[in-house]
Amino acid sequence: FTWDFGDGTAPVVTTDTMGMHVFDTAGTYTVTLWAENGCGDAMAYHWVTVVACDPVEEVDFSWDPLTPTAGMTVTFEAMLVGTPTMPVEFTWDFGDGTAPVVTTATMGTHIFVDAGVYTVTLWAENQCGDAMVYHWVTVESGQYYVYLPLVLNNFGN
To answer: What is the pTM of this model?
Structure first.
């Protein structure tokens, strides 16, 4: 087999039916395969389009309010570092036993039913790479008790 990847690199001659190649730049290439044995030869070609791809390298997120109470709607926002190739898919795991949320939106909301400290994890992924980050979110009970002194004045008189 002789593989010509159409990008100016030297053709590859091999006995392997699988050809692997890394293209250095984006573009459309004509990939040609010649096969021959003692009985004859054949040729086939296909156009291959290579796209530029910038991976998700780093992700972070913020939330508001910073210290929510149980039952409150919390807004989460993902922040990407750099300019990854779109689309980017975000997977949120809120650490409270609910199913992970998969979305392409950078903002979303969640309601924590119970007070506690939750490990919120965010994965961001595109076709070229992925990144993950987590933060601990403290959710307070939202119940406050006020103790007032009991003042008795002339009680019983």
So the answer is: 0.64
